[in-house]
Design a protein that fits this description.
By secondary structure, this protein is mainly α. The protein has one domain. It has 13 helices and no strands. The mean pLDDT is about 95.
Length: about 280
């Protein structure tokens, strides 16, 4: 039987949580992990965000834990559901963390837009199939609901609107800042540790090669040779084709089960996550 989207037959205006959960935990768990990691990474290139993260010192001195906290909070919201008490507890914890800092609505809208747009672009570029219209709508509805729970105003109503928001914000605000670069370097060094040590130089070079050119420019990273950039993108596309030939995943892959999460070997409490 040919693999197909699990969202077939579901209403994305009603079943957006289930569609989004199946999309991320069954059909594209690895792709979503990469896409969301790079989505957060690109937010550092906005100096107002990069400077704030640098000034907390958490993202340069305790990078692993900050990565884990962010991933676990978002993962728990997906697992538990936006309308459940455990899910709301995770949202409250995230809002408490953000509430300690003076973060403008425009930056909050942009960060949310990266979560909507970048997974969609990643899957459509590298995944074993393209996203479906139902998944596109469900992703927008999911993050619009999360955004409202976070108190974010003036959110776009569709995927095209989120894409315009993201692209326009980056065109206006991406710029080099040494503090943003320091946060990016620390995060990139963390990415490298997710793979065997001998591969570290290649993984770092590969990670920079798959970044958008304007993102590399904002961090002051050297552009790779054209052949290496093409080979890096090609390797991801090849992986997607190979995954499409494999049997369907039968069990969900949750964030809390990821081997990249290392800070809480004995388990965690949502209320203790974050700064």
């Amino acid at each position: 039987m040919t693999r197909r989207a699990r969202s077939a037959g579901l209403d994305p205006l009603v079943d957006y949580e289930r569609i989004s959960r199946d999309f991320g935990q069954y059909d594209f768990p690895w792709d979503l992990e990469q896409a969301l990691s790079f989505a957060l990474f690109r937010t550092y290139a906005v100096p107002s965000i990069g400077r704030l993260l640098y000034d907390t010192q958490q993202f340069t001195t305790d990078t692993q834990r900050r990565h884990d906290d962010t991933a676990l909070i978002l993962g728990e919201i997906v697992d538990q559901g936006l309308e459940t008490e455990p899910g709301r507890a995770a949202v409250r914890r995230m809002n408490q963390m953000h509430g300690r800092h003076d973060i403008g609505n425009d930056d909050m809208r942009y960060v949310l837009a990266t979560f909507v747009v970048m997974p969609n672009r990643w899957v459509n570029r590298y995944g074993w199939r393209r996203t479906t219209p139902e998944e596109d709508v469900a992703g927008v509805q999911y993050y619009r609901r999360l955004g409202r729970l976070m108190g974010i105003r003036d959110l776009p109503e569709d995927l095209a609107g989120f894409e315009r928001l993201l692209d326009d914000h980056e065109a206006r605000h991406f710029a080099f800042d040494p503090r943003s670069r320091a946060v990016a370097d620390a995060t990139l060094e963390l990415f490298v540790t997710f793979y065997p040590r001998l591969l570290a130089p290649v993984v770092r070079r590969f990670s920079i090669a798959i970044m958008d050119p304007h993102l590399r420019d904002a961090f002051g990273y050297e552009h790779p040779p054209a052949w290496f950039e093409a080979a890096s993108h090609g390797a991801l596309r090849l992986r997607g084709r190979l995954v499409g030939l494999m049997p369907e995943r039968q069990r969900p892959r949750r964030v809390r089960d990821s081997r990249r999460i290392r800070s809480y070997p004995g388990g965690f409490l949502v209320e203790n996550l974050g700064t």
